[in-house]
Amino acid sequence: MHPKVLLIGHLYHPDGETHLAARADLTVLPAPTRPELLEAVRTAQAISPRYPHRADADVIEAAEDLVIIHTSGRGTDAVDVEAATRRGIIVCNNPGFGRIPVSEHALFMMLGLSRHGREHDAIMRTGRGWEDRLQRHNIIRDLQGGVLGIIGLGQIGSEMARKCAAAFDMTVLAYDPYVSQEHAESVGATLCPTLEDLLAKADYVSVHAELNDETHHIINETTLRQMQPHACLINTARGKIVSQDALHKALTEGWIRAAALDVYEVEPVGPDNPLLALDNLLLSPHIGGLTESFMSGSAMAVATKMLQALSGEPPEDIVNPEAWEPAKQRAMRLLSGA
User: Fold this and answer.
1) Strand partners of residue 77
2) d(CA 191, CA 123)
3) CB 267 within 8 A of CB 279
């Protein structure tokens, strides 16, 4: 009998779903209601919630035979990991696939802010490009020799540091209480003892931290006021790391010059979101990691690791390894039909 796999939202690439469908009883719920989700998960043995869908404590408790929950990317904030661990359910993520595409997207956003790309595109379309350009040249700052502050020096933050130190000879500062100075130096960065120290010195601040209790709204009114007036903020990590209300206030009152966001506190972004009216804000629809290589690779990784766990083989990237033994026993019991 095939194992039952539930996808809450499609995988990033159809290859992953094809791989699963050939080896499992696959159900895909692109946009389930709460009752539909709780009913579908009841008999599932593996689930993958695609952000912004969540596998919270109620979903986990409703699942009777669950062995594995797999996220689509690196972040696990859409899963109640503690609830899963209590139930003996492993949680896996995809930590390696976003390093290149997300760092490239953050770099694109930093370049766009540096060269005022959004503004210059707009004035060209009004026919005033040549007339207005000389009024703007004196506020363009070179990246070369500038100061970049990185919040979170994990895989993506480290890649951003390497790129900017090598390509633009930037001074790269980093704030991350969980990495060593040796690691920071290996990627061309210098650790700052406090976030305030980084914010006071950086021309650009790029957020690459995980979302957790420590980082929720770590960018707020207090920290935004600690940035320089000419500085810019870039967030390609998670929306709830930055307080939207505080950022709106900072941009409208001129505490900082500009910002760029790929992620938001509430997704998808509705047409009434006040951020959409700001001229000094560059926006993209949470696509930082969505390159062809990422989508195909991450989808196949989800499918492969789900099937490994369901066969009793420990997959890579288990974030709660203490749950593996009960999860394995459940998988073997389901395999035997007991």
Assistant:
1) none
2) 40
3) no
Q: Which of 82, 185, 267, 292 is catalytic?
A: 267
What is the arithmetic mean of pLDDT over 4-31? 95
d(CA 75, CA 93) in angstroms, rounded, equals: 7
Of 19, 208, 286, 330, which is the active-site residue? 286
The reply to whether 115 belongs to the active site is: no
For the residues 297-318, what does the mean pLDDT come to?
96
CA within 13 Å, CB half, 24:
27
Statement: the pTM of the whole predicted model exceeds 0.90: no
Residue 325 annotated as catalytic: no
DSSP state string for 122-187? HHHHTT-HHHHHTTTGGG---STT-EEEEE--SHHHHHHHHHHHHHH--EEEEE-TTS-HHHHHHT
Q: Is the pLDDT of residue 51 over 80?
A: no
* Mean pLDDT calculated for residue range 179-198: 98
Average pLDDT over residues 309-323: 97
Residue from 53, 116, 208, 238 carrying the catalytic annotation: 238
Taking Cα atoms as reference points, which of 100, 322, 82 lies closest to residue 213?
82
Give dist(CA 33, CA 297) in Å, integer: 29
Cβ pair 37, 29 in contact under 8 A: yes
| Mean pLDDT value of segment 100-125 | 93
238 is catalytic: yes
Q: Is the pLDDT of residue 138 over 60?
A: no
Three-state secondary structure string covering 311-327: CCCCCCCECCHHHHHHH
Percentage of residues in the chain having pLDDT higher than 90: 84
Annotate 155-167 with b (16+ C-beta within 10 A) or e (fewer). bbbbbbbbbbbee
Q: Listing from the earlier edge strand, what are the strands of the sheet with 171-175? A: 189-191, 171-175, 147-151, 204-207, 232-235, 258-261, 281-283
Is the peptide bond between 52 and the residue preceding it cis, with omega within 30 degrees of 0? Answer: yes
Residues 191-206 pLDDT 10s:
999 999 999 999 999 9
DSSP 241-278: GB-HHHHHHHHHHTSSSEEEES--SSSSPPTT-GGGG-
